[in-house]
């Protein structure tokens, strides 16, 4: 393998790049992975830990390799956010797990959703979260119950394998893939092929860090390819051939970066190999010295897309890829597929809003029943990247009946702008990294804004995040709240947020503005949102969206 010329003056030595000969682990996480592959923990769970219980789990497995099977220890109840950075992991954790069920492409049958609901009800205290990565997460899971949960998931084609860890995570696709007539291309087949070939492959079970993939031909770019590690975005080339534009290097957290177009046209039969080539570059050239510097976005920042393309072609594909066009801009402002959409077969898809992704297993089971009752194909359901669900195949004559049946459970096909646009991460309730509570607060926030601004009908994204890690994507929201401890008027340390305004994806994408460290307490969030949104309604120009307004607004309008 040739060593490419680096485009940065940053010294190579010590970055831990395998391709440059630095194989020795440089931090505890790399040592943990070298000592035992994360995939090997599955057998120890089945043979040992399910029988010994929580106290019998090896610490390296407990706080490291368990993630390869979709398991994190959850936060012990009652520990305030101010203790997050003070206590050790073993002091923060409970003897229960968060478990993530991997749902590639967000595609579910009613049978699969019924199994997911039953697991929540029986093993997870009837709590579940639909995530913004199309997964379903559980809490309160005991290690003794994991083998039975796996058996049930696998009986309907699901698993928790590589749902977490330094591996290829769940692969996103448009929930309406193959369903809507205006899509550029249906990515379902190439995604399924890639998952089947590489999920659980030891060749990719030790990456520098997480690896997020999307493959979609959605005209709305609903998988948000701008912020994924690697994305295949549907395009049509000059010859009229549908394929994919390759984007690499997106990611948020504390150093947000947008993905870069590599500039190639990828035909459908090339997708799996190109994905493997990109993943191999990350494995071999990714920075392993520091966990904070180990995402592909940092390598992309140093290399640039031209060099990435050259290494991909020369060292991994051993073939040239043709130049390709950029995709068309997103067709609609909102990417969540909420509402009633006409399918190309003449039936309808009904997308509906949960309560910031939080739901019960009992209600998931009920949704499975409704999908069977109203759908013409036995019950097909999809998860979205906006913490929403979609029921497919509903005849015209039954649409309003299903809208009403869902509304009985506070599942809204036609939600308010605030209900539709609000997302929240797991937060302090269960997450060991969180500083503030998020789920319940976000629900109270959108309900209060509905009361105060009942006529507000512009699309508005309000993302509530419990820490700087951006699981709820606060930098790309119209109004993004990053959880932190702040001081109130009395000088007391309380839960609060740093405010980010005007983040948006698509044309002229940008991350939200921060205003001289502007912070508010949790109790002030509704007042703040009302004040800023009323200012927008008063000052906006015709057709002006909130993000565009923020871009030209004076600071005093926004603080």
Structure, briefly:
By secondary structure, the chain is α+β, with helices and mostly antiparallel strands. The protein has 16 helices and 20 strands.
Structure explained in plain terms:
Residues 1-8 have low confidence and may be disordered. The longest helix has 15 residues, at 271-285. The strands form four sheets. This protein has a five-stranded antiparallel beta sheet with strand order 1-2-5-4-13. Among the domains are: 183-330, Sulfite Reductase Hemoprotein, domain 1; 339-414, Sulfite Reductase Hemoprotein, domain 2 (Alpha-Beta Complex); 420-557, Sulfite Reductase Hemoprotein, domain 1, CATH 3.30.413. The chain is globular. The protein contains 16 helices and 20 strands. It has 559 residues and is α+β, with helices and mostly antiparallel strands. It has helices spanning 28-35, 41-52, 59-62, 89-92, 110-123, 146-155, 188-198, 271-285, 296-303, 305-317, 361-374, 399-407, 417-421, 439-452, 525-539, 546-552; strands at 71-75, 93-101, 107-109, 128-130, 136-141, 168-172, 211-216, 230-236, 242-248, 260-266, 339-342, 348-353, 358-359, 380-383, 388-394, 422-424, 462-465, 479-487, 493-501, 519-521. 29% of the residues lie in helices and 19% in strands. It comes from Modestobacter caceresii.
